[in-house]
Specification:
This protein is mostly helical. It has one domain. It is built from eleven helices and no strands.
Length: 226
Amino acid sequence: MAFRRTLERWHEPDCDIAVVAVTQPHSEKAVAQGNLTGIGFCIMFVMLSVMLSTGVILEERVTGTWQRLLATPARRAEIVLGYLVGFFVSGWLQMGILVLATHYLFGLSWGDPLGFFILTSVFIATATAIGLALAGIVRTPQQQSVAANIGVVVTSMVAGVYWPYEMMPAFMQRIGLFMPQYWALRGYTDLLARGRNLAALGRPLLVMAVVCAALLLFGVSRIRFE
């Protein structure tokens, strides 16, 4: 009797296994595996490109183009505005190329179009302001290039572009809150991973707008017109 029961128990499965297909097109976990890393590097490359482009003001002071512009009937405010618009459009062109490439090559959707447009515009404007402020501190285009490359790479690391923000020590996470890349990445995460719209981007937009306004005023005040 005991032997028969042992044999019966031996053939009984210990547990039931069920296979269920679960699709979560907008889940943060699904996006975070690869897409958010790609988005982070898009942020870093666009920011670096915009900050490097602002060094053209220093370069044109060396070549004499800046002095010739000041000799034209154009007012100083118009010259500065023209440069700023050029930097902004250049950043948007590069971001547009990256968006189209990631969409058609990797099937990445960037979420709500209006939220994406406003978030990207504020981020590019912030990168332009940072680059202009940096151009007002350094002396040569070479210094601008070195400072921009090192600064963008280091701050992107702290902001969570290279690895998940939550994996960093607490003190690095607090430092990352001061980086515009962190807030841009957080905004894009809300758009892509959580399927949210413009209404959920209030805090990232506000932080970047404050940084943009402060550094833009500083950068413009440091432009030398002599």
